[in-house]
Amino acid sequence: MAEGTSALPVFNVELSFGPMLIGVFFNMILYGILIVQTYTYYQTYRNDTLWIRLFVGYLFVLETANTAFDMAMMWQPLIQGFGTQEAVKKFPTLFSTEPIVMVLISTPIQCFFAWRIQRITQSSWIPVFIVILSAASMAGGIWTGVKLFIIKLFARKPELHESALLWFLTSCVADVMITATLVRSLSQRKTGFVVTDSVIDKIIRLTVQTGMITAICAIGDVVFFMTLPRTALNFLWDLTLSKLYANCLFSTLNARASLNSMSGNVSSGQNQRNIQLEVGSNIRRQTDRYTVDSSRNSPGV
Description:
This protein is mainly alpha-helical and 301 residues long. Helices cover 71% and strands 4% of the residues. Strands 1-2 form a two-stranded antiparallel sheet. It is elongated and about 65 Å long. The N and C termini lie far apart (56 Å). Residues 171-258 form the DUF6534 domain. The chain crosses the membrane at residues 20-42, 54-75, 95-113, 125-144, 164-183, 203-226.
């Protein structure tokens, strides 16, 4: 107890609850965006494969729970326990749910992208490695949540290093691998036809933008966590990460409508599942037909 008390002055209110509060603010802003993304998805892609629609619903429910937990988490020290030593010394009770809920969101999303890579490349070794990294990340996140529940004190935050590093580093490597593999695979699918290649270029840009956002955020979390272990500055990144994962996935799912419009072959039905991209050649007698199935090609194609 004496050791924990001596460390308390380092964990002042500004450096502990300030970053957490700002992180929750950004989390709620991203949740508002997620609501719009979810509504757009269910209105636009009513004929998507059932499991994908259920997957989107699963993510939205977990993100809603995460937002509620975060608000309750900040209520405890800043309102309910305001001005007490208990509020300053200890992590909020519900803070231990943060890493657990986050990996329940991020790991399935990474596995979803691994499945997409397998469908595109027809190879399993990279997707399997991504799944292994995602599973390790989930183990690290659950381990971190359990340790948070056990240690309770802000002063013991450095004890989270091992589990948090396992969580964030494996997740970051998985994100980078997903982005790099999708970009490489899509680049190899260019045909030389302007219409098709312009669609592929847009998919590549979207893949880089969405994939690197989560990787950069995870790197920022690790850097702040390791270099400033006795502050809560890493929570600026940490508390927004799950919403970034879900928003990035939903944005790629919802981008299919604009990609289909670029192809110039969008049918009158907005909910058509199979969009065919026909590319003609004056030299060839036969038209090359590229069929993009919305249940197979989201969010990579």
